Amino acid sequence: MVKKVYLYGLVPTSEYEESVLPEKRGFDDEEVIHALPMGEIAAILCKLDSNAYTESFIEEKMNNDLEWLQKKAFHHHEVLMLLNKLYTVIPLSFCTIYNNEDSLITSISSQMDQLTESISRIYGKEEWNVKVFSNDEILKKKVSDSNSTIEAKRKEISSLPPGKQFFEKKKLDQLVERELEKEREQLCVHIHDELTAYAVQADVKKNWDKKATGRKENMSWNSVYLLEQNEVNRFLEEVKIQEQKMGELGLQMEATGPWPAYHFSRLGQMKK
Amino acid sequence: MAVEHPMQSSTIVDVLEKVLDKGVVIAGDIRVGIADVELLTIKIRLIVASVDKAKEIGMDWWETDPYLSSKANENTQALEEENKLLKDRLDALESQVNTNNRITTESKSEG
């Protein structure tokens, strides 16, 4: 029976030959993870039982068996973290599976140029993520106290008859809300600009809902940076500086990394 | 501490955000239609939230009759409340995703 192939990532063959890949069980907990060198690039993969891992099985599991998804997503990520420590690695998406080894070889060979270009783009660099969370109550108070438009409006309202004041106060609340959003956005853009100065490449990603992050604060910025290894410390220093500055405005920062270059290794392809 | 190492502190949100990213370096033979990543994360949190809450309450609370134990009862209510909120959010997202999926499927079948 021909086995399917689960592909974790692609590494330069020369780096693979220099550092041994530690023995580790693969996606199905049985087969061992190993490398398949194909010229300049080596694929890090494991075999999978073809009957068990069909398209419909995986789709069903991924969307409906959340414990499975969580366990396997962490497995995938754990392998890539290991590879990222040892080699320059192009990490692949969760469940990148080929019907057999030949199909994998055909696919990789046909894109060898782009893949080697991706490798050279991320070589010697680290991918870091920065998320900014905001405690809107603190920032709202700041905005409400120091914004001149709001101040003027408030004065105007206090001179109105009580009946009118009610509706005008409602409008004022909306104004505060809009000014808060503007202020928060400006602060985050400022942080992003300061951090981007240390990066080779930077990108802004989508913010997550509170229900997904499980935090009290709103996620107000989510960005990713590709850094030269020797810039990482200065970048993290800047994160600290920004965090101290922004803390009193109710903004908290969270930097995570180094991640396998999930984001930046695919940029070349996305631009096509 | 603002700076964290992905392996020690990764939440499921961070990991799913990375490993299910829509951009693809190279595509496999198997193509799986993934529901919205945010939706999946909320669903996972729904499970995790229940387990965490259960632990917080104490391992033995479900062994006693929850209707006789006011503490357990309060916590069950809080849990139910949270689940309800999460489910509402889920429904909203799910209907959004259904619309999006239809568009994705259409564009896929063209290609």
What characteristics describe this protein?
heterodimer, A: 272 residues, alpha+beta, Alpha-Beta Plaits, 2 domains, five-stranded antiparallel beta sheet, four-stranded antiparallel beta sheet, 9 strands, 51% helix, 22% strand, B: 111 residues, mainly alpha, 4 helices, 2% strand, extended
Per CATH, the architecture of the largest domain in chain A is 2-Layer Sandwich
Query: What characterizes the major β-sheet of chain B?
Result: none
Alpha-beta content class of chain B:
mainly alpha
Shape of chain A: elongated
Helix/strand-derived class of chain A? Answer: alpha+beta
Could you report the average pLDDT of chain A, rounded to the nearest whole number?
Answer: 91
Relative strand content of chain B? under 5%
Determine the fraction of residues in helical runs of chain B and give it as a percent range. 55-70%
Put simply, the count of helices of chain B is 4
Mean pLDDT of chain B: 64
The number of helical segments of chain A is 11
Report helical residue fraction of chain A. 40-55%
Which two protein chains have the largest interface (Cβ within 8 Å of the partner's Cβ), and how many residues from each? Answer: A-B, 63 and 44 residues
Summarize the helix and strand pattern of chain A as letters: EHEEHHEEHHEHHHEHEHEH
Which parts of chain B are unreliable, with pLDDT below 50 for 5 consecutive residues or more? Answer: 53-73, 106-111
- Pick out the low-confidence regions of chain A: none
Main location (chain B): other
Keywords (chain B): Coiled coil, Gas vesicle
Family (chain B): Belongs to the gas vesicle GvpA family.
InterPro entries (chain B): Gas-vesicle_GvpA-like (IPR000638), GvpA (IPR050530), GvpA-like_CS (IPR018493)
